[in-house]
Design brief:
2 helices; alpha+beta; single chain; elongated; 4 strands
Length: 68
């Protein structure tokens, strides 16, 4: 992991534990920059160089969608 939290996909592939509820993570694409991508596409896309876990949703979303 670099100092900004990016992980080289060849050094450590993402797992399901790194994904959000839709199985997405943040990736760095060599030509398109920052993208959200399904974890299953990360390793097969040759232009994705790094990844990092998705951020949690906004607090208000969590409060409004909490299951009781």
């Amino acid at each position: 992991m670099d100092k900004n939290g990016w992980i080289n996909k060849n050094a450590q592939p993402p797992t399901d534990a790194d994904c959000d509820a839709w199985r997405c993570i943040l990736v760095w694409h060599e030509f398109q920059g920052l993208m959200v991508m399904g974890v299953h596409n990360t390793m097969i896309n040759q232009f994705v160089t790094h990844w990092r876990p998705s951020l949690p949703p906004p607090e208000q979303y969590i409060e409004n969608h909490r299951k009781e």
